[in-house]
């Protein structure tokens, strides 16, 4: 659980394993048990044999979402989740332009690397239609903690860099690889307002911030009082199991019914059984509440 052992049997207290979200991290018995039980029942691709594991987890995950965010698609990673979210936004709106933040990270495939702008992780890809807006960084940004002033740049990008119509906007709620940067207060409501006026969908990338880690809220976007059109997640969702998800509304999800969308392994029985077990452990062991205490403690130490 909280310990790791090296090749000589030396014990380490693991304060590093961020993806291992459930209490104390490694080999949680409830998660191990769920994986073993599901492996003994059936493990295969997601699409061939109908199985309850996927529906059970989708239902549990949807219950953690606000508003009408009730349709869940599973993927194998955060990159895939964001690729799917960007594709849905483009299909739904019929537009191509995406706005993302400087210093953001969203994955390492075509569309997601295009949306990524964090310089240490940025590779040069064809990124037609991607615009990187001013980062609302309350520590180093020109407008300090005034989120609305940074959001004006999103409106400028729409006004001066597009036809006035966009497919969507994607951002983390706390930038992970960008240095644990919380977005300046008031940023998301103002930025979402501009994007919605331009017909775009707002995508919240919760790959690093989600799953109770904020303490005060289960999802990072909730700290800014917004409800996105699409939420993506991965990493902590499976406590180390390769799993990601995209959650959206039934109306938006409908765009994927026009052709046959599938993902061979995304949401396979073993991974979704593990995901459900992780979510149950988070609730059983009050992990969100414990994160609140940790944040209060670390803020006191910082002060
Ligand atoms: C915010 C964010 N989005 C997306 C990703 C991509 O996830 P994955 O590495 O599972 O493809 C990452 C990975 O670090 C991330 O931090």
The CATH topology is what?
Aspartate Aminotransferase, domain 2
In the CATH hierarchy, what is the architecture at level 2? 3-Layer(aba) Sandwich
Mean pLDDT: 93
- CATH homologous superfamily placement: Type I PLP-dependent aspartate aminotransferase-like (Major domain)
Please work out how many helical segments DSSP would assign: 9
Please provide the count of β strands.
11
Radius of gyration: 19 Å
Largest sheet: 7 strands, mixed
**CATH C-level:** Alpha Beta
Strand proportion? 5-15%
Distance from N terminus to C terminus (CA atoms, Å) equals 31 Å
Shape: globular
Strand order of the biggest β-sheet? 3-11-10-9-6-4-5
Low-confidence blocks of residues? none
Hetero compounds: pyridoxal-5'-phosphate
């Amino acid at each position: 659980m909280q310990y790791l052992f090296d090749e000589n049997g030396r014990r380490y207290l693991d304060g590093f394993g961020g993806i291992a979200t459930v209490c104390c991290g490694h080999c949680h018995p409830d998660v191990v048990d769920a994986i073993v039980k599901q492996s003994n029942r059936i493990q295969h691709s997601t699409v061939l044999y109908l199985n309850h594991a996927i529906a059970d987890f989708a239902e549990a995950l949807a219950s953690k979402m606000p508003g009408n965010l009730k349709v869940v698609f599973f993927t194998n990673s955060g990159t895939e989740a964001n690729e799917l979210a960007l594709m849905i936004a483009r299909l739904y709106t019929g537009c191509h332009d995406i706005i993302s933040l400087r210093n953001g990270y969203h994955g390492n495939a075509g569309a997601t690397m295009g949306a990524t702008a964090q310089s240490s992780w940025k590779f040069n890809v064809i990124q037609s239609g991607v615009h990187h807006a001013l980062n609302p960084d309350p520590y180093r940004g020109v407008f300090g903690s005034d989120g609305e002033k940074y959001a004006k740049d999103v409106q400028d990008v729409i006004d001066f860099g597009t036809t006035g119509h966009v497919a969507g906007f994607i951002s983390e709620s706390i930038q992970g690889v960008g240095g644990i940067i919380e977005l300046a207060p008031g940023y998301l409501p103002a930025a979402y307002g501009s994007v919605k006026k331009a017909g775009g969908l707002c995508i919240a990338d919760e790959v690093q911030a989600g799953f109770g880690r904020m303490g005060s809220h289960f999802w990072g976007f909730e700290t800014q009082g917004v409800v996105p059109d699409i939420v993506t997640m991965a990493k902590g969702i499976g406590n180390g199991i390769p799993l990601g998800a995209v959650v959206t509304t039934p109306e938006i999800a409908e765009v994927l019914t026009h052709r046959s969308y599938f993902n061979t392994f995304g949401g396979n029985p073993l991974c979704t059984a593990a995901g459900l077990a992780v979510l149950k452990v988070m609730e059983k062991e009050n992990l969100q509440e414990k994160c609140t205490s940790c944040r209060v403690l670390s803020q006191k130490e910082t002060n």
